[in-house]
Amino acid sequence: MKKLWGGRFKENxxxxxxxxxxxxxxxxxxxxxxxxxxxxHARMLGRQGIISKRDSDKIVCGLKEIALEIENGKFxxxxxxxxxxxNIEAALTKKIGPAGKRLHTARSRNDQVALDLRLYLxxxxxxxxxxxxLFEKGLIEIADNHxxxxxxxxxxxxxxxxxxxxxxxxxxxxxxxxxxxxFVDCLRRINRxxxxxxxxxxxxxxxxxxxxxxxxxxxxxxxxxxxxxxxRDFCVEFLSACSIFMVHLSRMAEExxxxxxxxxxxxxxxxxxxxxxxxxxxxxxxxxxxLVRGKTGRVFGSxxxxxxxxxxxxxxxNRDMQEDKVxxxxxxxxxxxxxxxxxxxxxxxxxxxxRMFSAASETFATATDIAEYLVRxxxxxxxxxxxxxxIVRYCIDNRERLGxxxxxxxxxxxxxxxxxxxxxxxxxxxxxxxKSRGGTAKEEVKKQISRLRRTVTSNK
Length: 460
Hints:
This protein has 460 residues and is mainly α. It folds into three domains: 6-105, Fumarase/aspartase (N-terminal domain) (Fumarase C, Chain B, domain 1, Orthogonal Bundle), CATH 1.10.275.10; 110-358, Up-down Bundle (Fumarase C, Chain A, domain 2); 363-458, Ribonucleotide Reductase Protein R1, domain 1 (Orthogonal Bundle), CATH 1.10.40. The protein is built from 19 helices and six strands.
């Protein structure tokens, strides 16, 4: 097949090369954005008198017809035409005749693909932000509905101090809010128009880039034509935001796996979101959470692959940059799929509040409260820490819990102890005392719920 760029060449492209270099197999998903950008470009060309108004109108009508054909599954993508841009341009010329050959005036595939990718990422980033917001709202509802549920908080995967289950989930909402901030900030750099840079040097034709930016909803225009076609920072930044988000989602998935195990038994996962074993009839496996955890590495891989592809490229455009779309598409699909399945699963999880409370009560989780009690009585913290450590050691040696100790036992370690110490060594008492801003006391957690309900919606 004759190439649209083939005038300089005597020989046809090798079939091996065509198969190796084609991108239509994956970049066809940019068709909507390629047509959207081409319509804006054609209107600008007509407005500026670079092509006739008649040809501009024919191009726009032809592109709209092609869009309908693609939507209805009637469009034939031709691998020999390499990519989505040349497939659409060839179809347009076949449909409307010589006017179609005027569409590529004052642009290159270099600035065209950068435009398509920015339009695509603008849409996808907003969709991801909306899915995160939906997930956050679900977690806030879980927090509100389980405001009295107590669980052990952990450090080093060891039981540390009792906390409210709500407090624990709100920690993830805070993480996801930061993720949204990163995506929103990323949008600022995505939303810059590269079209008009052409191959790299701009054009001698009297184009109006600001007009195209206005038609396509871009906030600004890429100011350096060389940078406009070689920049993929916005892709790297997007993949970085995806990777950090997946770190947070994977941490949550890991806790789902742990909590659903018999060793923890904090939650029961819905049957519809688990699988069985091919050999062990009793098994109920947390496959969804495990796959979310596993797919995180896939998103990391997309980021590292793109960084590696870009790190040695001289200015401006190089064909290596074709690989950007593979990474961006895969990460986008992965993040959205993980969010969709987690959004569906989490409202159906059942929490064993009794088991969680028991786990929070089984160890010396309120030991810090004893140390802080002594601090309130005037003892320096390091001394209070030492005294409390000896109390814990005494309990371990005598197989007792803190709540089992008599008043004379406490006074053996310090005369500062009074009967009010019992108010802080119970799990409920410990939680009530954590009234510092952002703490786990119920009144503080309710404030967090109220604040996050406002900010989650306003930051989407």
